[in-house]
Amino acid sequence: MKSWQTGALVASTVVSGLMAGLFAGFAYSVMPGLKQSGDHAFVEVMRNINVAIVNPLFMSLFMGGVAVGSVAVAGLWRGADRQLRAWLFAGLLSYVMMLGITTGINVPLNDQLAAVGAPDQADLAAVRSAFEDKWVLWNSARAIANLVSFGSFAWALVLLGRVRKTAPVSPIGGVPARPGW
Question: pTM for the full model?
Fold first, then answer.
């Protein structure tokens, strides 16, 4: 295996783990903490978080995860056995599912919350009611999708490590020479 292939898989694993941790952190600490807050505080804090999170680091990880995942899958696909391919594909597919949930559900909910206008001119209880439960549910779904992605990429690393230890290397490009590849 070429080092860039392994590097792309390591990067995919790290990024999916970081994103899983972010969304899980919201699921088990941020949102339960905000649930204890009044409507004004809830709306204000969520709006502030939704603005603050759109920063270069978050966007690089969020969008970069699918990029490095695609590079890892494409780079390793040809030389991989079925089992490794399945875990690579599961990791990338789960990450793409998280992107779909985020862009298709969570971001539109965030946009609706932002569009409410001045908090003193809105029925914050109604705004919160239309937002909170749905956002929490889909945040949990994307956390699970990212956890599956992280676990899949991590297991692919384990399998890749096993292949590298046991497979003789072909003289062409350093790819493991295993029957059926």
Answer: 0.85
